[in-house]
Protein 1
Amino acid sequence: MELILKLMMNLKKLFINHCKTKRLEINNNQIVTIKIINTFYQNNFNYNFFTNLFSKKENIPGFYLQGDVGVGKTMILNFFYENFNQSKYRLHFNEFMINFHDFIFQNKNNKKENTMDKFVHKLKKKYKLIYLDEFQVTNIVDAMILGKLFNKIFDENIKVIFSSNIKINNLYEDGLQREQFIPFIKIMKKKCVEHTLTIKEDYRKSQNKNNYNYLYPLNETTSFKINKLFRKLTKNKIKEEKILSIKGRKFNIKNYYDGIAKFSFNDLCNKNIGAEDYIKIADICKHIVIENLPNFDDNNSNQQQRFITLTDIIYEKKVNLTISSVSSLDNLTSANNLSEPFKRTLSRLYELTSSSNI
């Protein structure tokens, strides 16, 4: 405990040294955020019997970091997480919810204990801290259960840190039956320290201006280039047809070469598949090539939502990416209702396609 305390009390100094080592800009707003995280740590992990006994403050077990795309939210929380020397668990929020639904399904016949309670008790036994990256609510199934789930998590005094592009009050905005989601918002407001990290510049976009692996427009020249790149990637590798099984569903990858896969946009986003499928694909791929990325509008918003989810998972899993597209990243259009989350996608595409690793 003394080692952890010493480490966390110097979190600001450690962060500044981290930025210098990584040649990152030291931004004052990020330093302020580090100080607030340190206070969160001190309040939740640096305590003893007497401070607990005489403290009149209500325990606040959550820290919710919100901000626009590319301002360094994930970088800061990753830094905190890496320097947290107790039992911990980090997942993209999509993957966390998939694990929850899988657990409920696998234990549905166990009548001895409420399965949601059992899931939370399992978390409490294993982890002091949970870190959920890219917190967002996009479907009604999750929206209807999050209130009960996180009420139990916080009641068990499990500490949770979140990163999100969306303020708590604006979660699941305009979603179906949102009035039933309001109790969850009230729980989050009560149980989390919410802090907004404000920085005007998108670091991912400004630092990754050479998009070697993003090719446009869709014409013969682009087609020739992407085929040439794919041949280079798969040189001396054996082609196989990979068949994934996801809860009884079959997904075929026809162009698969030892971790290198090529898809058309329609293969991945114009079918009724989602986060679970994308996670399985990303788990067996080290480089993914996607051809024929279109512009988006209100007529193909479902496909755009899938592409947003796919990009999040590719980014989280650190899979290399090459894309051929109808237009440049600066000129890709969006459906009206997805314009905000698509900013994160575009920001991540700048980083994902900037590497000249082919």
Protein 2
Amino acid sequence: RVKTSSCGTEALRMAASHEPPDLIMLDVMMPDVDGYEVCRRLREGESTSGIPVIFLTGLISAADERRGLELGAIDYLAKPINPPLVLARTRNHLLTKVLRDRDYERLRALDHEKERLEIEQLKTERLLLNILPSRIADRLKRGEKDIAADYPDASILFCDIVGFTEMATALPAKRVVQLLNGLFSRLDERAERLGLEKIKTIGDAWMAAAGLPIPRSDHAELCADMALGMFEDLRAFNRAEALDLQIRIGISTGPVTSGIVGHTKFAYDVWGHTVNTASRMESTSKPGRIQVSAATAQAIEERFRLEPHGEVHTKGVGPVHTFWLLARR
């Protein structure tokens, strides 16, 4: 389809319309704006800069032709015209534009797909960081397998909601999940602020570690501060939900083994005598109390107030000298 204009101003308006031309054949000598100026404005316009322009003019000097090509025209044909030549040039330039437009659309589609893949990759990375420590996630992304490490000195904290199992039997499933998520989210935020690594939740129990995967000397103090702060979080949660839940906490310090288990539904976990002892410190603790092993007490006694609790016999671990953690000094 061919459209014509009688002057440069009209040509510019038509080129900038919602249905721009695929190619413009442009004279130089026109009544208002000459062809050179029209070509210059076309090249400057964001929506018209890609429209191919062929000059078809009676100006035949080399300087005129050079000027037209420098302004961005793709061809320069002098009058009198040779119709077969003009048609051949027009077909070639239209075909070139069609192919260029197809390439452009393919590139746009590729860019869109690349952007979509990058978004999905970001989502995957965020999910990894929600599940795994950042250092472990980086190793996993690099293709490492059988990720494991021994830590000669770390601290493990267990927390359990007292009587929650019995209470949950009388509640709808959605309410149970809502309550657990509400309290555990507060604990997660505190752990992140202090620098503990939340390991997992087990039913209505919450578990964290300090001193791994990045070793640090104050791991026992971090767990002690975390434990004391958890009661603040519980009080705020109880006020918000009009409840009177209680928790008990256990902490132990010593050597720990950690690593990734699973290849599809993988998880970062910790094992060893210290982990088992921390679990027993929690299960033999009392509501509203924090029970710590002798190793933890020794590591924090200069900065925290402790009360001896005597020897506690624990399943699978044996007798453990324990202390109640009361407050910071």
Protein 3
Amino acid sequence: GAEAILKGTKVDGVYSSDPKKDPTAVKFPNLTYIEVLKKGLQVMDATATSLCMDNSLPIIVFDITTPGNVKRVVCGEAIGTIVKGE
């Protein structure tokens, strides 16, 4: 009965590469499951991403180290990156 998977990380979403190592990394506000898999983005392992896709379960990736972000994401505020179907 889950509505989404919440993935707390040390960065504020999904990037083209590690933003702590690559200053040119680009943040993606929205992605599809297929984009995550094709680009090899490290949101979570490919099997977990595929299971979310098969069950139409969005993945919300957000910065868990920022105070108040858990409440913000649970309340539906648009933070981080949302991975879902087209």
